[in-house]
Each structure stands twice: as structure tokens, then as C-alpha cells.
């Protein structure tokens, strides 16, 4: 928004976010903030939608699994236009192949405690122009800390001088991406022309690894 002439309408119900995170933009003439839950319809005309709502931390998305899956499914169904959906590595859940190519469908437990998030992220409406970016462990300023994600645990633990919590067996590998890089990629993903209308499945893992 800083470098362009775009107007931004930001809708959030603050379940894991907060108004304080947006302080910099509140009052800006090209920024509008709406308290809104995407499970309810919102009738506004826009050119592009960055669909980023959904608690990303396991602690939060498991807290109310029904709301989580509703946010992903109903929230996505109520959008139309050119949409960027931030999907997640969780659609592969416990993948048997590394790294995951787009031809790999994952190893999902449909009755597991995480399925509200995993299956919600796998639900996409057909017949709309959508780009799906699979993002992995993005971290940056103002993120919720100590909420069970590797970045949000490690960084504050390291800053406090605490021991880092390593989950068993300790041999896991992860890709990380800093927020400013992530935004450039998301804007690029939504700006890139696609010839096919429907679901576009893009795996950004290798690209983010190169950055
Ligand atoms: N951070 C990552 O590494 C990562 C990885 C994979 C996918 N994602 C996806 O990217 C998006 C953003 O992730 P994040 O890390 O910023 O998560 P976050 O939990 O910090 O932010 C999610 C935002 O969505 C809002 N929200 C949740 N449910 C809502 C609803 N029903 N209506 C309106 N607003 C609602 C929250 O208040 C919050 O501001 C999510 O869709 C997440 O699944 C993130």
C-alpha cells in the first residue's frame, strides 16, 4: 500500500489479530478497516482479494474447530473475483514425500484434531479465478508469540535466553520466510496472469527455499 495508489479495505474479526497491529494505517485516506467475520456475507466491490483470514496457530485453530472449518469453507465460498488464498503445508499433514510436488495429495487424517484446518484449507470453490500459495512458516513483527508454531516459539525463547523447545524426534526440517519477502511473493502471485479459470495449485516451497 505504501508504494501504490491502491485503496485497501481490511476485514478482520480480531480472533487472533488486533487493531493495534494496524495502528500505522488507521486514519490513512486509502485504508478502511471493517470488523467483520468472514463466515457472514460482506457485500463490497473490490478488484482483488487477499484471503488471509484463519487462525494459523494450532493452539488457536484447534480451540474452536467448527469455527475454523467454517472460516475456511464458508469464508472462501462467499468470495468472488480474483482471489489469493493462503493455503498451507498442513494440506499435506504428515507427508510421505519431501518436498511435496503438486501431484502429491498428502497424508491426511480426516478425523484428526487438526483436520478442521487441514481440510478447510483443501476446500476451494471451482469456477473462480484463484491463486493458491502454499506458505510455510512465515514470521515477522507483531506475530503472536509462544503459540506453538516453530517461529513464534523459537524467536521469543532465543530472545529471552530460554532453552528452545524441540519437538520429538528433533530431525524435522522446515522452510522459513520473512514477512517482507512473503508479501512480495503474494503480490506477485496475484498479479501474475493465469490463462485457466479455476483452481491454480502453486507450490511455493522450492521458491521460498531459494530466497
Ligand atoms: N504464518 C504462516 O506461516 C502460515 C503458513 C501457512 C498458511 N498460513 C495462512 O496464512 C493466513 C494468515 O496467517 P497468520 O500467520 O497471519 O495467522 P494469524 O492467526 O496471525 O492471522 C489470521 C487473521 O485472520 C483473522 N480471522 C480469523 N478468523 C476470522 C474470521 N472468521 N473472520 C474474520 N477474520 C478472521 C484473525 O483475527 C487474524 O487477524 C492464514 O489463512 C493461515 O492459514 C500462514
Automatic annotation (TrEMBL):
Cofactor(s) it depends on: NAD(+)
Organism: Brassica napus (Rape)
E.C. no: 4.1.1.35
UniProt entry tagged with the keyword S-adenosyl-L-methionine: no
Cellular compartment(s): Golgi apparatus membrane; Golgi apparatus, Golgi stack membrane
Transmembrane stretches, start-end: none
PANTHER family linked to this entry: UDP-GLUCURONIC ACID DECARBOXYLASE 3-RELATED (PTHR43078:SF49), UDP-GLUCURONIC ACID DECARBOXYLASE-RELATED (PTHR43078)
SUPFAM superfamilies assigned to the protein according to its UniProt record, in alphabetical order: NAD(P)-binding Rossmann-fold domains
Name under which the protein is recorded: UDP-glucuronic acid decarboxylase 1
Amino acid at each position: 500500500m505504501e508504494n501504490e495508489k491502491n485503496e485497501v479495505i481490511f476485514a478482520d474479526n480480531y480472533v487472533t489479530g488486533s487493531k493495534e497491529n494496524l495502528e500505522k494505517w488507521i486514519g490513512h485516506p486509502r485504508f478502511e478497516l471493517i470488523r467483520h467475520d468472514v463466515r457472514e456475507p460482506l457485500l463490497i466491490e473490490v478488484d482483488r482479494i487477499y484471503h488471509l483470514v484463519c487462525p494459523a496457530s494450532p493452539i488457536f485453530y484447534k480451540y474452536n474447530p467448527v469455527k475454523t472449518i467454517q472460516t475456511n469453507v464458508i469464508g472462501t465460498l462467499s468470495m468472488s473475483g480474483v482471489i489469493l488464498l493462503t493455503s498451507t503445508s498442513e494440506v499435506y499433514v504428515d507427508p510421505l514425500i519431501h518436498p511435496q510436488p503438486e501431484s502429491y495429495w498428502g497424508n491426511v487424517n480426516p478425523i484428526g484434531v487438526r483436520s478442521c484446518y487441514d481440510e478447510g484449507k483443501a476446500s476451494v470453490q471451482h469456477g473462480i479465478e484463484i491463486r493458491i500459495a502454499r506458505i510455510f512458516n512465515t514470521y515477522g513483527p507483531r506475530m503472536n508469540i509462544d503459540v506453538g508454531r516453530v517461529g513464534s516459539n523459537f524467536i521469543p525463547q532465543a530472545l529471552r535466553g530460554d532453552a528452545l523447545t524441540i519437538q520429538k524426534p528433533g530431525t524435522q526440517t522446515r522452510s522459513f520466510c520473512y514477512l517482507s519477502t512473503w508479501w512480495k511473493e503474494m503480490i506477485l502471485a496475484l498479479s501474475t496472469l493465469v490463462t485457466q479459470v479455476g483452481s491454480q495449485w502453486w507450490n511455493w516451497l522450492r521458491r521460498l527455499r531459494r530466497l
